[in-house]
Design a protein that fits this description.
18 strands, HORMA_dom_sf, Herpes Virus-1, Znf_FYVE_PHD, two-stranded antiparallel ribbon, 12 helices
Length: 456
């Protein structure tokens, strides 16, 4: 069986539109933008296997990025690293991401480097009014800048991709992004970036009003009529870390599975070369990826302990799911899944929320099934993958009905051995499942193809 990895990469019109409306919508937009941009860079700056890429179209905004399913070994690695990057961003620990290509014959030689700088705004109030149109324009300009880098692409087999991240000051001392190292020799990687990449060229800036990403690149031989900035931030961050945080490294680099030695200078013993142990696991990438989502949910405190006994939702599922918001009842302080209440974003909910128990509402089976259906749909939408962690807790007949409806609406398709989400159709489907009319009490009332499916 061919090992594959699944990317959640697509920027859609709904993602862009929601990105300027709320903090959570903005966060989801950025989580989609990061891997999409990395995919665009890989396509235009390397000649890596083209069968793993495809063109997307977001209301006239055309771009090329990863396919939903990739089989190339390099891209599967980058899929792993991207999950770690997104975990750090979701927790608001990510300050900078450096995506670089290192010479396969000389690990001290950085061929090209792309830098993403992240800024976080106020959760409740946008620091500036950003229109949907201006956000789409900013994304378009960023993608165009990357596409217009007119230097010969790097040849496959002549480079090793690498990621290096720096953290914000609020990062816990014991936090490490999944699939990233915190070994002391990684400090040398930051120093190497500072010495080899002297001048970065601005590619674009994307702001939702809640989050901002500034993108720059260092590509030798390319010097368009564009603003250049000196690369001092990495060195400053590194120095600040040594003086303020002591032994806690804020510079992490990706853990590679490629079968090669990557040699770097050890900071404490400059004359001695050390080897970062690199393994090439034979395990199927799917089994590894199955754990990534769970890994990215974990915090310093066990997530089960945090919510134990507090979740009392109409869906009867007492679990905190990945990328699904919980809301607290103003009276009893119990927690409910936001999608089960008919909302995708917490900003749409009334400020003083009261749960169904405190309202003494009597709920029938049809409404409970509707809530579970919405939870399944929201999980699929926000994570870009089939909602296995929810399906594992519900009856098989409800799961089968959910799958049937998604198939009929062309939201998912079965590829190799897993369900793959079609982002464009998901974009349309999500609007039908979460209409403005909150008086809907059953799945049939949604008017979606296939809702006559017998769930119970």
């Amino acid at each position: 069986m061919t090992a594959t990895a699944v990317f959640s990469t697509s920027i859609t019109s709904t993602i862009i539109n929601k990105g300027v409306l709320s903090y959570e919508g903005s966060k989801i937009f950025i989580q989609k933008l990061i891997p999409t941009t990395v995919g665009l860079i890989l396509y235009h700056r390397t000649d890596i296997d083209r069968s793993n890429f495809e063109q997307r179209n977001c209301n006239g905004l055309k771009f090329i990025t990863f396919k939903r399913v990739v089989s190339n070994k390099v891209l599967k690695e980058i899929c792993r690293w991207s999950m770690g990057v997104l975990d750090a961003f979701k927790k608001e620990y990510l300050k900078e991401l450096h995506f670089m290509f290192v010479d396969v014959h000389d690990s001290f030689k950085i061929l090209e480097s792309f830098k993403f700088h992240f800024e976080y705004g106020n959760r409740n109030i946008s620091h500036e009014k950003v229109s949907k149109c201006s956000l789409k324009t900013a994304v378009s300009e960023l993608f165009k800048s990357i596409t217009n880098i007119n230097v010969e692409p790097l040849k496959d087999g002549m480079f090793i991709p690498y990621m290096c991240i720096t953290y914000c000051d609020n990062v816990p001392l014991n936090y490490r992004a999944p699939h990233f190292n915190t070994d002391t020799e990684q400090d040398e990687l930051a120093n190497r970036l500072a010495s080899n990449c002297k001048k970065f060229i601005r590619l674009g800036q994307t702001s939702t009003g809640f989050h901002t990403i500034k993108c720059q690149c260092c590509v030798p031989g390319w010097n368009p009529n564009s603003e250049t900035v000196e690369n001092s931030s990495i060195q400053e961050v590194h120095t600040s870390n040594q003086t303020e945080l002591g032994t806690n490294e804020i510079v992490d680099s990706s853990i590679s599975l490629f079968q090669t030695d990557l040699r770097v200078n050890n900071c404490s013993t400059p004359k001695k070369n050390t080897v970062i142990d690199v393994s090439d696991d034979d395990m199927e990438i799917e089994s590894e990826l199955n754990n990534i989502q769970q890994d990215s949910c974990e915090t310093v405190i066990d997530i089960t302990d945090v919510y134990d006994g507090k979740i009392d939702c109409v869906c009867l599922l007492k679990k905190k799911f990945f990328n699904i918001d919980l809301v607290e009842c103003s009276y009893c302080c119990s927690l409910q899944h936001l999608p089960c209440l008919g909302y995708l974003f917490v900003e749409s909910l009334e400020k003083k929320y009261i749960c169904y128990r405190c309202k003494n509402e009597k709920l029938n089976i049809s409404y409970r099934t509707l809530c579970r259906f919405r939870l399944l749909t929201a999980h699929t939408f926000f994570n870009g993958t089939f909602p296995d962690e929810v399906c594992d807790l519900i009856k098989p007949n409800i799961k089968n009905g959910f799958v049937r409806i998604l198939k009929l609406n062309k939201v998912i398709q079965y590829v190799i051995d897993k369900y793959i989400v079609d982002d464009n159709n998901m974009d349309v489907f999500i609007e039908k499942v979460f209409p403005e009319n909150l008086n809907i009490r059953s799945i049939k009332d949604l008017g979606i193809v296939g809702t006559n499916t017998k769930f119970l």
